[in-house]
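Researcher: Here's the sequence for the chain we discussed earlier.
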Amino acid sequence: MEMDNRPDPDRLLKQVESEEQNRKKGKLKIFFGYAAGVGKTYAMLQAARQAAAEGTDTVAGYVEPHARPETTALLDGLEVLPVREIPYKNILLKEFDLDAALARNPQLILVDELAHTNAPGSRHTKRYQDIQELLAAGITVYTTVNVQHLESLTDIVASFTGIVIHERIPDFVFDGADKIELVDIEPEELLARFQEGKVYRKQQAGRAMDHFFTIDNLQALREIALRRTADQVNLKTERMREQNRGSEYCTDEHILVCLSPSPSNAKVIRAAARMVKAFKARFSAVYVDSGRNKPLNSEDLMRLQMNEKLAEQLEARIITLFGESITGQIAEYARVAGVSKIVLGRSYTKHKKSSFSEQLAKLLPKLEIYLIPDTYSSAYRGKYSRKGRTAVVKNKEERQTHMMRDLAVLAAILAISTAAAVCFRALGLDDSNSIMIYILGILLTAMITEKQIYSLFSVLGGVVCFNLLFTEPIGTLLVSQPGYFVTFGVMFAVGSTTALLAKKVKRYGRQAVRRSWRMETLLETNQQLQMAEGEDKIADVVCSQLCRLLGRDIIYFPGEPDRVKAKLYPLESGSQAELLTGEEEVAVAAWSYKNNKHAGAMTTTLPGAKGLYLAIRSDRRVFGVVGIRMGERQLSIFDESLLNGILGDAALAMERERTQEEKNIALIRMKQEETRLNLLSGVFHRLRQPVENVCRDSAELRRCGEELPEEKRRELYDELYENSASLSELAGHLLEILSAEKEGKKIYENSQKKQN
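Model: Thanks. This is the structure I predict for it:
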């Protein structure tokens, strides 16, 4: 049997759509260097002047000349956009004016310093986000960046320079560039520039050369920059190969990294991302909610969310798992998902039991596990510890309340158990019944209290009370019979085991409830979406569910926010949901709709907004924008996963509605066309006979003319008149049909505009 070598039509369609989108987008060219002063801005300006000379509409959006005369001179002859001044702490910060650039809409714009962090109050937190918006508008951008600003290389650079770079860009921005031009000079030449004062002022240059700009650091940075440029070239080659191979191209490599609130987790994620690029592998990041630990404080939760966003920036797929055994859940997921490598962090803390990696290695003996050392300094650890103590102080009052409650429960249960045991002895019952009463009390304590320590206190309290009240000599902790030691030991062992099992049952119960509730919620939402007819009903279902589940005010824009009327879903009467209808909030929602991205609170785009705005979107279109009013309480990882799941279901439901509507419209048009063709066929059939008669009579009159009798000529003239009148009537009917068709089409187009 011959193999079908025909190309996959779905793949070809996706490729065509991707190429069409790329044609609409602007092109990004990055001038890449290994350090400041290598000549990136100079090379960018030279390329811009060349483009302007060739007729390209070129403007300088933001260029940092660094008081270098040679660089400043290249700006002569180029249109320079005015900068935007933002007041901050009694100074005016000069920033790139994104709105002015979009309004000017040149073919090519220069925006220096890709990794720059914008001043507070800017639309985006980072400049690369400004550039992404320019590219989406179809504007080609030239920009500059140094190798130390790449997210995945931060830890490597910090390891030999001792300096942590805070201004960073995600690797996908660099890898997605259309062109990378490496601007390279010898480190010795760069140091000579420093000494001549061509990079920084001499005093500043001296300090820089003593710290960051040493010959060893520059050589290492240069090597990394060369390697990274080569990697980007290889990446483009692999993408072309993947396109040519189509669906046949695949890789068996799947790298997994674990998410945690640990300060060192970011380093582990970056290391895993570098491995993903090296192995050309799939990338997954897993967070396991074990339910064993106390809820994360605000600082740990924020750090966990930052690590999650870092993993997303590095193009990892985020997965949330639930289970008591963290290693067990990771191992099970690794088996099911086909994970080939796991990247973990390693601390230098000594453990009495086997470490986390050793436990995982036992469960997955054939899997490759990579350990990334935790090299954080002791000063940082001390700082982190102090922060932890600060967080503890903040929650001290709340913990004291819980502690007093649990101690009261412990004392009450112990007193009731003792009273019951005394009653049993007064009734002449055996001491084994008293022991069972105390074990029952231990079990109740474990079920009611929060921490396991109270269960241990209950065990110790039960043993002490039994010794004082029921063993000879009464009222002392002395034991007259050696057999009582066995009784105490068994009582302690049974009580401890019972308490431990009770705690495990509680944890399993909480986890089962959370999993069940999540699945129930998603199932319920999905069922309601299946039953909903029309996008308005779908939006009502989604927003009502989010309002109930998240406990927050919701707003929905069924189209472009600044052109449609929003619908509010307040959590309760008297809430502050109206805050989401302000002009500034609507502007944030409009940006989210236009750019098909999240914006507002908890994001890096317009983070000062009161709401978090998320587009309900599919691969082809944006249906609307959902706004969630944020307060001091941030969304948890569980809430985010639930939110993404519901919005994904909503997008599918709306896409189904749109597709069905398009099918119905296509069917109506097809029927209209069929009717039109039938009508025209009938009309032309009716036209045929009168035309033939006119032609026949005209030919006879022309041939015979005056030779025909008067009566015959008159008869032919009458036939010509009747046939001409019939033709005129048919022509009038045709004009009426065409006019009605045009009017119907106009009415349909107007109705579509109103709907949109």
